User: Fold these one by one.
Assistant:
Number 1:
Amino acid sequence: MSERRETRDAYGEALVEVGRAHPEVVVLDADLYKSTRTVYFRDAFPERFIDIGIAEADMVSTAAGMAASGLIPYCNSFAIFLTAHCYDQIRIQIAYPNLHVILAGSSAGLTQGPDGASHQSLEDIALMRMLPNMRVLVPADGVEARAMTLAAAAKIDGPVYLRLGRYPVPDVLDKEYRFQLGKAVVLRQGPDLTLIACGHMVNVALQAAELLANRQVQATVINMSTIKPLDREAVLWAMNATPLVVTIEEHSILGGLGGAVAEVMAEDGYGARLIRLGTRDVFGESGTADELLEKHGLTPVAIAERLRHQFGR
Amino acid sequence: MEPGQLHELKRRAAELRLHVVRMMGAGKAHHFGGSLSSADIVTALYFYKMRYDPQNPAWPDRDRFIMSKGHCVPAQYAALAMLGVIPLEELPTLKELGSRLQGHPAAHLVPGIEGCTGSLGQGLSFANGMALAARIQKRNYQVYCLLGDGETQEGQVWEAAMTASKQCLGNLTAIIDGNGLKAMDEPSCAKLMEPMAQKWAAFGWYVREIDGHDMDQICQALDWAEENADAPSMIIAHTVKGKGISFIEGRPEFHNAPLTEEQLQKAIAELEANLRELEEDGR
């Protein structure tokens, strides 16, 4: 297994590459540049970096003005502050006119850890997914975080929400992986059930699939790293191929990956069952990342134990 | 400024007010008060101050105007129509289904509208972004942002105020349309507003207070602001809500309200009389 990396690290490094390739890229941060890893960009391109201070809404609206003037801004803060605190600004000033602004929400999910509910973003995917024009991306590992960071400037013209974390994960994608917006990736195939995961949970899903295989339950694993536009074809394919679909996310089961997949299955489904794993309409709390994943049943062991019983094994 | 030019600006302001009231018409709720209180300022910006090519509203070096108090966008629509950026005939489609002329500014729909506003308090940050972009892209344009006095109750305005002075945005001028009324009543009923000028000065801005209906004072203040190259400028314009129509002036119930057909005709008659007077004076 490869070395573990945090997606925010891969993002911060890739941002310097983006800055080199695109002179119109600017980076804004709200007093978290060491934590969000935009400090690398700041050091490389100080004239294109602005620390707006502890004023997330001001940052987002400023970025909109810059985008309307031909720049490509990357806005940075913790995921919850960026999405929840600035929802109105993102909605009216960025999503409505379809401006090319990248919103990088860092330290997302339960794995934010000790800071507790105020800082643990369990609703950000749902919030961003509701906005017309918004693209919602959740990288599974460092490889994908880099690929998405580059694609957000070069391949997408419009608003992007990029969900990043501070939880070290091994690379699950190979170095040659090419990110395609709205295209899910099948990482493993088995006939019994499909695990559809995003972000840190992709690695957890792969490990759970291994444990299930030991019990003669063969799982398909899909990395659904674009939540919007969702790869409907991949969901429909999974429903056809296996009788059970399980979504796994480090986010509320309401409105996020599980919500998006449920919507497709309800409208276009053929009767496969769905289990949504994630947080169940509750706030987070202080604890270590691993303790919190354990508590919410989001470890490979907990997932495999729960799912093997579906097959009586 | 020579007297002829000043007179012509006053005539244009009167014409702009007439367009505003005609496009709003009777029987539908509209933001008469704020659109009319800002009419002289908007006129001075588009017909006196801004470097602007109506043939090419996306010209990268144009001066930019952000209507942060987005509900007063009819005044901006009128100016853009008078310049020929949008057709004059389109104005009466304001707020109708299928019209580009939304109730609040939609930058992606209407040429000449720079940013989406309507949720108050966000426009000054947006203007900062445009002013910063000029520095980063080494362009030489000015950015103007019109705020309501009530709008300054939004906290983001003060976040933006601190950003603009920290970033030394000498190419930014904000103007407060100080008409002394918000949607329900006076701003001071809800928050301590004064001393407004001292607040902006303390935030690192150049500040000047003017009569926002005195065209000469408006133009002089805009010239003064452009000279301030090392910090942003704030022009606090004292205005009258509904200015130009006797029975609307200073009346909070016309913040967003319909006129009856009779009221509309009376309003148009008053504005036409004013315009006629200015045109006769000019001869």
Number 2:
Amino acid sequence: MSSNTASRYSFWIWPPLLAVCALMIWFAPSVSWLRTPPASWSLPVVDITNQVTDVFVGFAKPFFRAIGELFAYPMEALQSLLQWLPWPATVAIFTAFAWVAAGWKLSLFTVFALMYMVVTGYWAPSMNTLGTVLISVPLALAIGFGLAVITYSSPKVNRIVQPMLDFMQTVPTFAYLIPIMLLFGFGPVVGVIASAIYACPPMVRNMIVGLQQVPADIIESGRMSGATPAQLFWQVRVPNAMSTIMVGVNQATMAALSMVIIAAIIGSSADIGWEVLNQMRKARFGESLIAGLVIALFAMVLDRISLGFSDRSRAVARQHASVLVRSAPWAIALSVVVLCVAFAPQITWFSVWPEGWVFYPADSINAALQYVTKEYADFMKGIKNSALFYFLLPIRIGFVKAISPFSWGFALEPWMMHAYALGAGVLSLLGAWRFSWRIAVGVIIIATILWFGMTGIPWAVFILVVSTLAWQVAGVRVGLMSLFAWLFMVVTGIWDQAMVSVAMCLAAVLVCLLLGGALGVWASRSDRVSSFIRPINDTLQSMPLFVILIPFLMFFQIGEFTSFLAIIAYAIVPCIRYTEHGLRNVPETTVEAAVAMGSTPRQLLWNVKLPLALPQIMLGLNQCVMFALAMLVITALVGSKGLGQSVYIALSNSNAGQGLVAGFGMAFIAIVADRILQGWSLTRQKELGLV
Amino acid sequence: MSTTNTTGDSKDAITGSDVKISCRSVWKVYGDNADAKFQALSKHHTNANPLRQSLIDEGLIVAAADVSFDVRAGEIFIIMGLSGSGKSTMVRCLSRLVEPTSGEVLLDGEDLLSANDKELIKIRRHRMGMVFQNFGLMPHLTVLENIGFPLKLQGRSSQDRQARAKEVIKLVGLAGREDSFPRELSGGQQQRVGIARSLAVEPDVWLLDEPFSALDPLIRRQMQDEFLRLQSLLNKTIVFITHDFLEALRLADRIAIMKDGQLVQVGTPTELVLNPVNDYVAEFTKDVPRDRVITVGELAIDAANENLSKQLPEGTPTINGGTTLDSVMPLFESHPHGVSVEHKGENLGVVTPAMVIKALAQQQQPA
């Protein structure tokens, strides 16, 4: 460890800090303001926000409504065009795109995916969704492109825009919807606007990165070729940044789709998102699964097509192909379109898929589901209850409340508490003796959390410990940022909900880290496992969030456990990916040296590869936390509590103040977690000499 | 054997004297507020060295310190230095890819630094070509499009571009690869594209920034030959950057050696080898086989006044002044009295075995 980082990790902060914390915990039962921040402390942030919003909305509404109208026309026109167009024509057009983007495999998949929409009778709502996406994506790309150009060309603007982008991506999706809904009213146009705004940041970010990464000698060769500044930008920088820009297009497209689906919550138009949501609310799981699959297939097709266009080797191959080969897919698609339109009056099933041909196995799915849930009821209840009683509850409310005859089968006796304290103390000393004082402090903190639970720990204790930790691993600024963020929760009166969210997130992230880490290790050692996991990861990543809820909802109904599983399913992906990537990218020479020294595979993993891959794994953990928080908000739909629920309730009450405060709270948690983990990863990388 | 031409490396010992590019006291300083600090400090110092030192003391990076040199028309002028010596900065000052902090750069007598953006673009479009170490090719364009790119920027028609690009492709020996993309080519081929592109606009000044450093040694050798062949056809004014002293010896008419942003010595390869100004230069020249650097022309001129030619027997061969000593020595076996030397029809005098031995022996003494 280098000397300057060593000085930052200072041991002497901890004993007095922990002593103060112990005192606070000791007095908490008798001093009420230590337990929960009193209501009199909270500032009227919500009310003020609401008043400001009201004034602004009252004043600006006509303007925004007019803009909404402006977008409503092309959207409705596009939607009716897509409805009018015979389905084989649309399928042909999509297939041509897929073919050009990524070859016959993808075009086959595209035919299959779109046929699924036709056959299940979801063609009409699917096309409405597509219409919305097709308006919002170009809008997002255009705004993103413009913003990126401005940001790129002015460092001053860049300094303002970059943190804004960071923030925009951490504010939960629902929170976006509230101000937009207030300004633009209800209806499908809100989806367009919200998704265009939501999809902007990845476009801007990727484009800026792409532009900045153009190699210096290419820029110089452009300048020496006599390029004017405009030529340099359009003919040198932009084409050279194209593959990164296309990654941005891909991410923006997926974000837009995701937002369009979520906007169904307030849009209530006849699109597929609304269909899924509606079925879910009615607890019709077979139906929601069938409709959810439409979204999933949509996501996959759009994802693969837009990714295909960002693949440079394919682009080169395209350029090499003869004109005939290049234009063939378009020619075929065009002739199919012409034929379909011409014969549509004669062949009615081109336009409307006959009722009798619809394949809609909702009833059989429901029956099968019912059979399974009945047959394995005890087993599933067992899983659910063990997870709740032995894991989720202790983290949230602590052993002190979780242990009861109803849950654990016995009541908590004083001697157990003493034994627990003694055990923790011994473990801590053991840690200090065998490893380092840091392990000892860690043991004390974890034991305290498990005993009192996130919601049971006095708020000041939590803030002190987390902010000190932030300061120690990531520097003074992050420490202060953490202090500010948590105090925000205190003064806005959302402390309790915030802690519920933190507890849920923590629990899910722990599982992701262990399970995902193990899978990542496995994938790093076996190419077969790796190539098996990769497409699953890709698919999970490109899925609009609330589709992921459906399968868990089917088996475990509404409730905390379902949210827990859904969060894990989504947030585990980065843990797996980064672990595998980190382990696979340990320098070859280091591995060879270790093998030559005679280390066993196990020693190689634990003593060489994992320590070197740790910074990468930390970044994976960082992403994991971000994903978990994003999903946490969505799980409010299936009854999780905490800040996500607050946002969701605010959304249904059109309460801008409450929604924004809770949304910002969420964003602050995300940003603090992000900075701490990144700071930690960076420190480690510096220590390892990797940066 | 009458007029024997050389078998070894030949280079013109004598070049035209009209100056094409002139660098006068060019400074380039990097760092916070570099310009202002330079302005302030340059008032206190009249000499370059103390000024440089005080700039460094201010925490600035001095990439070029008071660099002055002239490049003559049709000359191959090589700037040689190790990494961080400021050689790349210098070539960028000549093209204003890097804006010098102070000094003058004259191109055909006009001050390049006072040119506005528009004029500068015009100069780059028509009068300068540059080749880059890592090729700097546009990955999304084909070979043909890459070479035509400078012409495209000028707004020339597609037909016009293709015609010219095809001409240059033939010149660099890449005919048949017009529709390939850069990544489908080997490093040597990519640099041929880079060279072709820089020549597409028919510049008279040709700047090459370590053009062969990224290539394998064998390919590098080939490309050097290719480069000499092209120059014999085109007769450009060349500024060539390299960190490889042997490459510099092989190609240069004159070499400028740079160290820590300062010009250490400028001279012909022979001058550097025979009279290094300091230990730094001597270190480079130490292991150089002198017989492959020193030309008979240079010895003959030195000895011209001794007028030995009359004593030579009949049938003595006349050789080109650019011939290096290693290639002339085998001739002494049959002509022990020496050979006569000419350049472009002009008689330069005589070279005798004694003179060659003296020249080679001189260098054995420690510098």
